[in-house]
Specification:
Strand content: 5-15%
Largest sheet: 5 strands, antiparallel
Structural class: alpha+beta
Strand order of the largest sheet: 3-4-5-7-6
Distance between the termini: 25 Å
Order of helices and strands: HHHHHHHHHHHHHHHHEEHEHHEEHHHEE
Helix content: over 70%
Number of strands: 7
Length: 607
């Protein structure tokens, strides 16, 4: 009999589902704001400046990915390290991660922009500009290089604001980026008559302003900067954690240059304009793909540090279901309405449309596959399987894509290039399946594509359930948990301590986090771990809920100090009446830790 059935308690999954969905929608809107700059570039350039402007943007596009590589390394790495540190209550580690992210995303990107300007001629040649496109590319790149400071600088606030639970603030910030990009670019192009260079000036101002605002808002929250001397011990951990996201963008640089050269050799500047449409379709899809996968990542990071295999399984199942619900309609709409989509970006010449329309329609086929790959890549990163995340990234973002494009274009011409996106995803899955097969041979306790260790759950040593914030449900749960304790053969004293801890903490949370709401869910997990001896196993009790932030240990300490100031023993006992249970648990536990993650209360008690 499983522990759950024996205890008569059930995990409704409502709390985790509601928390995840609450974070997802703002993340998608935030991602829309992040992508607004590049989308605005193409919309304004294509509609106001003609198809040749799209060819210039296609050639310069690798510059965006170079700075996105730095930003994603800093942002994803800092968020992953911070989530890991939060799971261990390491505030110093969080501050070091944020400081290192600032150095990477702002200082390093500025240095790179200055170097690019100093070597603008060789950079233009390396991007593949030829003939009449050389001078427009030089003029555009000379300005656009400095937008890289904003592009890279946006990433850390984007990731860390969500980790802190300030999803709406992140959403508002990056929606402002969308408005600023469109407004400033239109002003520079139409008001100042700066042409294509005006697009670069508007983009640069919008990105820099948003990055600055994001850092100001981030540092007004719980994150802090620290001395530079303290960041270096965490540098390798941050670079390792951020490497898959950075590697993905680096592969995008290499593949975009390689694909630009291949497309230009097959169809000239018209092909480059069509490839720019494919890039815009990819950027739009990233609003859903990255919004979902990056929402999932912080959850998976914290659950991994808590050894919560059941919550990991639930969150990835949610991500898969919601991901398909988002991307399948989007892919179908793009495939069916490929021609209106191309015209939206100013592509109207029949010879360009004949290339761009099938390009968009065939690219749409790859989007569901890309969604699933991105979910897996971000999961492996958050779960500490960095090598798997990097392996999948290199396979799908560069190796199999360029290889497929070369092979398929030889047989199908330019159409083979558009089909290579789907082929690369499928080949990457085959390679991933092979890698997982050999890895599980060495680690047979790890199961499935998620490589979860479910021994605690299978042996009945773990139970996850949820209760409403009603007193009768709380009391019933504290009584029923004795069945779980009996199944694990815990002694009566420890069983009573677990039951008491559960009841006291849940009642305190109910009274302070939900003083007038009895419909909220509180998520509980109890894990029986090996102790110093088989007769004395350890116990981890984790309680998670939304609502008003409430730290029971701080609450008890404040009440104790206030009461101690009166000097009256009876008044002291009376004032501590609602926190004596907390005091007894604190004295019996080896650890009582409170933290907030994703804007959610997390309480961990180790008995």
């Amino acid at each position: 009999m499983s522990a759950v059935s024996g205890a008569g308690l059930q995990d409704s999954q409502r709390f985790l589902s509601a928390t995840f969905r609450g974070a997802l929608f703002p993340a998608i809107l935030s991602m829309g704001g992040v992508m607004a700059s590049t989308l605005a570039n193409s919309l304004i350039a294509g509609n106001l400046l003609g198809g040749s402007a799209l060819a210039v943007l296609s050639i310069v596009n690798p510059i965006y990915f170079i700075f996105a590589t730095i930003g994603s390394l800093a942002g994803a790495g800092a968020a992953s390290v911070a989530a890991w540190c939060i799971g261990r209550d390491d505030q110093e580690g969080c501050s070091a991660a944020v400081t290192l992210a600032a150095l990477l995303s702002l200082a390093l990107s500025l240095l790179l922009a200055l170097l690019g300007l100093a070597f603008l001629g060789p950079l233009t040649a390396a991007l593949g500009a030829e003939g009449g496109l050389v001078e427009p590319v030089r003029r555009y790149a000379a300005v656009y290089l400095f937008s890289g400071v904003g592009i890279a600088g946006i990433y850390p606030p984007f990731f860390l604001l969500k980790l802190e639970g300030r999803h709406r603030l992140s959403m508002a910030l990056f929606l402002c980026l969308a408005a600023a990009s469109v407004g400033l670019e239109l002003f520079c192009v139409l008001g100042l008559d700066l042409g294509l260079t005006g697009v670069a000036w508007g983009c640069t101002a919008a990105n820099a302003g948003t990055a600055l605002a994001g850092w100001v808002l981030l540092l007004r929250g719980s994150f802090r900067l620290c001395s530079i001397a303290k960041v270096w011990p965490h540098a390798l951990k941050l670079v390792t954690a951020g490497s898959p996201a950075a590697l993905n963008n680096l592969c995008s640089v290499l593949r975009t240059v390689a694909m630009n050269l291949l497309v230009a050799s097959l169809a000239g500047s018209l092909g480059l304009s069509a490839f720019s449409i494919v890039s815009m379709a990819g950027n739009l899809s990233l609003i859903f793909i990255n919004g979902l996968s990056q929402t999932t990542g912080p959850f998976a990071g914290v659950f991994t540090s808590e050894r919560d295999a059941e919550s990991l399984r639930q969150i990835e199942k949610q991500a898969l279901r919601l991901g398909l619900l988002l991307i399948l309609p989007a892919a179908a709409i793009l495939a069916v309405l490929a021609e209106p989509f191309c015209r939206l970006f100013g592509v109207s010449a029949p010879e360009t449309l004949s290339l761009a329309v099938p390009a968009a329609a065939l690219y749409a086929v790859s989007l569901p596959f890309a969604m699933l790959s991105s979910i897996l890549m971000n999961y492996y990163l958050a779960a500490g399987r960095t090598w798997l995340a990097n392996f999948l990234t290199v396979c799908r973002s560069y190796l199999f894509l360029v290889l497929s494009a070369r092979i398929l274009s030889g047989a199908l011409g330019i159409y083979g290039v558009w089909l290579s996106f789907t082929a690369a995803e499928i080949l990457s899955w085959i390679a991933l399946a092979a890698a997982l097969f050999f890895f599980r041979k060495r680690r047979p306790e790890l199961r499935g594509i998620l490589l979860l260790d479910r021994r605690f759950e299978d042996e009945g040593r773990s139970i996850s359930f949820s209760v409403h914030s009603r007193l009768e449900e709380i009391l019933d749960a504290s009584q029923r948990i004795s069945a779980f304790c009996d199944e694990n053969e815990l002694d009566p004293q420890r069983s009573m301590l677990i039951s008491l801890s559960l009841e006291e903490m849940l009642v305190s949370i109910k009274d302070h986090s939900f003083p007038a709401d009895e419909t909220q869910d509180i998520s509980i997990r109890i894990l029986i771990t090996p102790g110093e001896t088989p007769e004395a196993p350890g116990t981890i009790l984790r309680i998670r809920c939304s609502g008003i932030p409430f730290n029971p240990i701080d609450y008890y300490e404040r009440r104790r100090q206030d009461a101690a100031g009166t000097g009256d023993a009876l008044e002291l006992l009376d004032s501590l009446d609602d926190s004596l249970g907390i005091a007894m648990i604190s004295a019996s536990a080896s650890l009582v830790d409170y933290k907030t993650t994703f804007g959610v209360n997390n309480l961990t008690i180790v008995l």
